[in-house]
From TrEMBL:
Gene3D superfamilies: Phosphatidic acid phosphatase type 2/haloperoxidase. The keyword Transmembrane applies. Residues 60-174 form the Phosphatidic acid phosphatase type 2/haloperoxidase domain. This is Phosphatase PAP2 family protein. SUPFAM superfamilies: Acid phosphatase/Vanadium-dependent haloperoxidase. Coiled coil: none annotated. It comes from Autumnicola tepida.
């Protein structure tokens, strides 16, 4: 069963990767770089300070950072255990896929997916009472993770599992945040 899932994942990756159009390559290379999203991250933190008293904004920011960095660490531990080669490092795929980046670490599961979905889910949970529009923040991780397929470095399964892990971690840290917020009367 696991081998069948891997085969479907590989076939879906090849199909999705082949949908990439050369004229959009620069866009996907740009959006896949985390540092290009720094202005958006600053906006998210600013929203905390615009929506809450400064003490609650600081606490919310700290829990968001804890959620993201814990997710990132957990992702790297799992990558070290799973040892799944990235598509761009798989010899029999190199000739049939488009490769725009060539990282050498492992693929399962996507750190871009896990950390971006952890961040946005936590932000949405924290701000959904303040704004109905905050759900639009999910546009960022969706574009971010799609880029990983188009640049040739992640299978769809890596992204789906990463997103799921991120959402779960965000809910755990948001629960902890709510518990500690009541404790500090924020």
């Amino acid at each position: 069963m696991l081998e069948q899932l891997k085969q479907w994942d590989r076939e879906l990756f090849i199909y999705l990767n082949s949908l990439g159009v050369e004229s959009y390559d620069d866009f996907w290379i740009f959006v896949t770089q985390p540092e290009h999203w720094i202005p958006l991250h600053i906006l998210f933190f600013a929203l905390f300070f615009l929506s809450f008293h400064w003490r609650k904004a600081v606490l919310t920011s700290l829990f968001l950072l804890a959620a993201v960095f814990t997710t990132w660490g957990f992702t790297n531990v799992v990558k070290g255990i799973a040892l799944r080669l990235r598509p761009n490092n798989t010899p029999d795929l190199v000739e049939v896929i488009r490769i725009l980046q060539e990282p050498t670490n492992y693929s399962f599961f996507s750190g871009h997916a896990s950390t971006s979905f952890a961040a946005v889910t936590f932000i949405v949970l924290a701000l959904k009472e303040k704004s109905n529009w905050i759900f639009l923040a999910y546009i960022w991780p969706i574009i971010f993770v799609l880029s990983r397929i188009f640049v040739g470095v992640h299978y769809p399964g890596d992204i789906l599992v990463g997103a799921l892990v991120g959402v779960i971690m965000a809910h755990i840290f948001f629960w902890l945040y709510q518990k500690s917020g009541k404790r500090f009367y924020i």
